[in-house]
UniProtKB/TrEMBL annotation:
Any GO MF annotation of the entry: transferase activity
Native source organism of the sequence: Winogradskyella psychrotolerans RS-3
Spans traversing the lipid bilayer: 16-37, 49-69, 81-101, 113-133
Keywords: Membrane, Transferase, Transmembrane, Transmembrane helix
Protein name (Swiss-Prot/TrEMBL): Bacterial sugar transferase
Length: 207
């Protein structure tokens, strides 16, 4: 029987996923607002396609500026919530102040508050789902480091900075072992002579 492949998203795939679903949930939130409440400021329809495109552009642009698509920050709920609030506030401000392309201000100003809450809640709910599913340990890429003991700490920091979904689970010291060899206590060490066996057994990505 063929072995099951581990499931994971590449860095670029996760960024595209975040951007795409952010826009999708915003439009779904606006649509639900129009359907369940007497909300008329902006409706999801072909007649309002220009208004919706403008809203989507603002969400994508300001989401990028305020680091909603920084993968390391997107994996932390507290940081994500703060960035969502800042992004939603800026999006709404620019949307209200954009002439011609944005819809006219509603007579009932409370509808602006509804739109603001929908922007925050819709993106936040999706990001909670993302953090608990996509960022869960079963999607981590497990890594076995191979190198000199003096370089291990730098490699660990570099990988954790570049992509938080790398899970470094051990290392193999490429230096000749001796009684005076320096030990690295941050990770378990595997013996070099069992290199291939370790790779096959643990299904590591090696660096």
């Amino acid at each position: 029987m063929p072995k099951k492949k581990s499931i994971h998203f590449e860095v670029s795939e996760r960024k595209i996923l975040l951007r795409t679903v952010d826009l999708l949930v915003v439009f779904l939130g606006v649509s639900a607002l129009s359907f369940y409440f007497d909300f008329e400021y902006i409706e999801v329809s072909l007649e309002n396609i220009g208004h919706l495109i403008l809203l989507g552009i603002y969400v994508a642009v300001f989401g990028t500026i305020f680091e909603l698509y920084d993968l390391q920050k997107a994996s932390q709920l507290d940081t994500t919530f703060k960035n969502i609030v800042i992004t939603a506030s800026t999006v709404l401000l620019f949307y209200l102040l954009t002439p011609v392309l944005a819809p006219y201000l509603p007579v009932e100003r409370l509808q602006i508050v509804y739109l603001y809450l929908v922007l925050i809640i819709s993106i936040l709910l999706w990001r909670i789902f993302y953090i608990n599913l996509i960022e869960s340990p079963r999607f981590y890429k497990r890594v076995l480091l191979v190198g000199e003991i003096s370089n291990i700490d730098g490699l660990v920091k570099a990988l954790n900075t570049s992509d938080p979904n790398y899970k470094i689970v051990g290392f193999i010291n490429s230096e000749a072992s001796s009684l005076e060899s320096v030990k690295y206590n941050g990770l378990p060490e595997f013996e070099a002579k069992y290199f291939l066996e370790t790779i096959k057994k643990k299904k590591f990505l090696k660096f």
